[in-house]
């Protein structure tokens, strides 16, 4: 097998590892919000434990990237592919961390009754999960149009986040327990908003791979 063939095979394997990690992270975010909505501490604890698997996958991808750089000495476009893969893995790991943050809040609130049924938070979760899925598709397809479209989704998440924060603040009163729960929900909304930002980071990476130019999708 010649050097270029070996390189492309290794890059394909790297991409498959990223997609596998992305699928687990996508599931983790969905389960975290589900655990919160149902105050299911068993599901929440499962998310916390499985974060170690995702962390291990990130380290494996990091090793693959560094090995490719050291052994293949890639140039220009090839180096952009490897560097972006490393950054995507970091964004995915941070998204997983936010899923854990949400799961820990579900554990803290376990045994309580939610002040009101969750509506906007699950809606935000659906949007960010769609963004994550689209960002990974844009990466596998090297599709800059799909990547750029993430900016509109991010704006939608930001608007929902702003509206939700205003609603939660308006619901606060002098009751400590009530304010404690509402504060936790504010953090959940913040974590989901940050997930959306990490998804736009992935989209920016795709645009950089294809064009060699930086484009800010999170304005």
TrEMBL record:
It is found in: Cytoplasm. Gene3D superfamilies: Phosphate transport system protein phou homolog 2, domain 2. InterPro entries: PhoU, PhoU-like_sf, PhoU_dom. Residues 18-105, 121-204 form the PhoU domain. SUPFAM superfamilies: PhoU-like (SSF109755). Its main location: cytoplasm. Pfam families: PhoU (PF01895). Keywords: Cytoplasm, Phosphate transport, Transport. Plays a role in the regulation of phosphate uptake. Homodimer. Belongs to the PhoU family. NCBIfam families: phoU_full. This is Phosphate-specific transport system accessory protein PhoU. It comes from Paenibacillus vulneris. The lineage of its organism: Bacteria, Bacillati, Bacillota, Bacilli, Bacillales. The gene is phoU.
């Amino acid at each position: 097998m010649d050097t270029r063939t070996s390189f492309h095979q290794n890059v394909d394997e790297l991409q498959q590892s990223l997609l596998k990690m992305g699928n687990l992270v996508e599931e983790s975010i969905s389960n975290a919000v589900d655990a919160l909505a149902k105050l299911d501490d068993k599901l929440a604890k499962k998310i916390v434990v499985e974060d170690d698997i995702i962390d291990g996958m990130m380290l494996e991808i990091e090793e693959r990237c560094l090995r490719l750089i050291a052994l293949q000495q890639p140039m220009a476009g090839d180096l952009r592919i490897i560097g972006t893969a490393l950054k995507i893995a970091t964004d995915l790991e941070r998204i997983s961390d936010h899923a854990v943050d949400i799961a820990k809040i579900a554990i803290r609130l376990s045994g309580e009754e939610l002040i009101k049924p969750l509506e906007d938070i699950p809606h935000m979760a659906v949007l960010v999960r769609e963004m994550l899925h689209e960002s990974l598709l844009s990466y596998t397809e090297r599709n800059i149009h799909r990547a750029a479209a993430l900016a509109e989704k991010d704006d939608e998440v930001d608007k929902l986040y702003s509206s939700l924060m205003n609603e939660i603040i308006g619901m606060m009163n002098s009751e400590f327990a009530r304010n404690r729960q509402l504060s936790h929900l504010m953090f959940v909304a913040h974590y989901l908003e940050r997930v959306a930002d990490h998804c736009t980071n992935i989209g920016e990476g795709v645009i950089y791979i294809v064009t060699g130019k930086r484009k800010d999708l999170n304005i």
